[in-house]
Amino acid sequence: MEKGYLSLVLHAHLPYVRHPEFKEFMEEAWLFEAITETYIPLINVFEGLIKDNVPFQITVSLSPTLIAMLRDGLLQDRYIEHINKLIELSYKEIERTKFQPEFNSLAYMYKDKFENARHVFCDKYHKDLTNAFKWFMETGKVEVITCGATHGFLPLMETSKEASRAQIRVAAAYFREVFGQTPKGIWLPECGYFPGHDEFLNEQNISYFFVDTHGVLHASPRPKYGVFAPIYCKSGVAAFGRDVESSKAVWSAKEGYPGDFNYRDFYRDIGFDLDFDYIKPYIHADGIRTNTGIKYHKITGPTNHKEPYNRHWAIEKAADHAGNFLFNRQKQAEFLYDYLGKKPIVVSPYDAELYGHWWFEGPEWLNFLIRKIAYDQDTIRLISPYAYLEENPRNQVSSPSMSSWGYKGYAEHWLDGSNDWTYRYLHKAAERMVELANGNRNAGGVTERALKQAARELLLLQASDWAFIMKTGTVVEYANKRTVDHVERFTRLYDMIKTNSIDEGFLSDIEWKDNLFPNIDFRAYCS
After folding, report:
1. Tens digits of per-residue pLDDT, 440-481?
2. Stretches in the chain below the pLDDT threshold 70
């Protein structure tokens, strides 16, 4: 007997990193790695489920910046160069490890993986993976939703409501442009909700969004069913709360499944292990050692001595963990059904890049789980949030609290001593963009081009990724430079528009570099 619903949500996002001014740029590899290790493996899983007529529903949010990169011709061609080099390296590895059977079989595995990636990317979807997600949407199996235009952290944009609204307006318009329909839902960047922002979603006919657990538990009035039923904001937009138990089972490297000692070790890569002259053609052109994606060892344990990875054992473990996850969700649903007196919905959101990139066996785990849910039980059913609302249209009206899924649950990760210096520039630029939009509503020609580019520069400046990087202490120099570059470009455009002295050479140059959202309407910033 069916006693509950499970809603799996994968949030796919990368910052807009595209540098045509360089022949090769290190941070562009973030996209290439994610295509090979996450997006194509997930596409393969969804294709297999659809081919086998497995009943399922899953939700995938694709951030507008990720979609724009997946559709960009320059990055598409650079990805093909990237995957061709990995295929070449895998053949060399087959030869190098021919007397090491424990590694040789893995070299063949990587060869097959890379060749499959090239086949899917080039032959099936003609270099544009958004075509795959369009098809998945048409089948009704995958509910693709949007995100803030450049993943700006909306609660820290409250000095300019127009800036928060523009993140939603631009995202919804771009989704309609790419997929031909209005997004049913949205992943608010970093799950960052500020009271009243649901009105911006309602303006775009977006039906639902997600908040972290405490966003619902601290809602007013207090929701009767906690996070196990959505709540309606006064605008009529539904908020779904994250379930802690099911989320932690997957994302936690220490307590969750990905930390199992039989799974592949992410940090041990031949880009760092092998002789420099051998690996040099396959790392950065400047000789900087980087990950290749070829990793031969399993986690093993808290030790520097790593044992060889055994693919068969790892896949068996993924199947066991899928069974364990399902068992726990069944028991959770049974308890909640009896306790609440209605079928609960368990919402389990994750970063998509966890699956395949960080947790190599994640796509296989997901495949096992979906098939087990379909055929091995009848207690829970996979469902998308929109389908849930269609089946269960009556829900409590309540106002979620300000919240995020970041460190300590509010805004501390995106506003602390490492990154607070950026906000005076973000707020001033937003104020000036609203001024420009309101004062030039009927602009055309080169002025309109400059206004569009000013909007792009502001949006790129607002990406939460830069503050996140500054906080975590990874490629901080790059995050700082991106922030300063976008501030300087926006400020120069502002001055040129205000004085009616637009330098077309400068404008053309940054249009070429920062070509995000070619059809953007700067009037999204109008009051």
Report:
1. 999 999 999 999 999 999 999 999 999 999 999 999 999 999
2. none
Whether 364 and 453 map to the same domain: the answer is no
Q: Is the dihedral of CA 62, 67, 70, 74 positive or negative?
A: negative
Residue 454 burial by Cβ neighbours in a 10 Å radius (0-12, 13-18, 19+) = buried
Q: What is the phi/psi pair of residue 224, to 5°? A: -65, -35
Whether residue 63 sits in one domain with residue 17: yes
Nearest Cα to Cα of residue 148 among 465, 427, 389, 474 = 465
Q: What are residue 356's phi and psi, to 5 degrees?
A: 105, -45
Q: Are residues 380 and 515 in the same domain?
A: no
The three-point CA angle 191-195-196 to 5° equals 110
**pLDDT value at position 285?**
87
- Residues 6 or more apart in contact with residue 272 via CB below 8 angstroms: 289, 291
In a domain, 389, yes or no: yes
The answer to the question of residue 294 being in a domain is no
Tokens 């469902």 belong to residue: 383
Whether this prediction's pTM lies above 0.90 is answered by yes
In this prediction, residue 251 carries a pLDDT of: 84
Question: Is the Cβ–Cβ distance between 235 and 202 less than 8 Å?
Answer: yes
Residue 252: per-residue pLDDT: 79
Query: Locate tokens 């409250």: which residue?
Result: 158
401/480 same-domain check: no
Q: What is the pLDDT of residue 409?
A: 94
Given a contact cutoff of 8 angstroms between Cβ atoms, the answer to whether 510 and 457 are in contact is: yes
Structure-token pair, residue 328? 């726990």
Structural domain range at position 251: 4-71+128-264+309-408
List beta partners, residue 399: 220
Closest CA to 342 of 391, 296, 390: 391
> What is the domain-level CATH number for residue 519?
1.20.1430.10
Residues 428 and 506 in one domain: yes
**Would you say 33 and 357 are in contact if contact means Cβ atoms under 8 Å apart?**
yes
Do 342 and 476 lie in one domain? The reply is no
User: Rounded to 5 degrees, what angle do the CA atoms 469, 208, 173 make?
Assistant: 70
What dihedral angle (degrees, nearest 10) is formed by the CA atoms of 245, 247, 252, 254? 30
pLDDT score recorded for residue 422: 98
Query: Of 361, 377, 408, which residue sits at a domain end?
Result: 408
Find, among 6, 59, 2, the residue nearest to 329 by Cα: 6
- For residue 257, the 8-state DSSP code is G
Number of domains in the chain: 2
Q: Which residues contact 267 (CB under 8 A, 6 or more apart)?
A: none
380 and 480 fall within a common domain? no
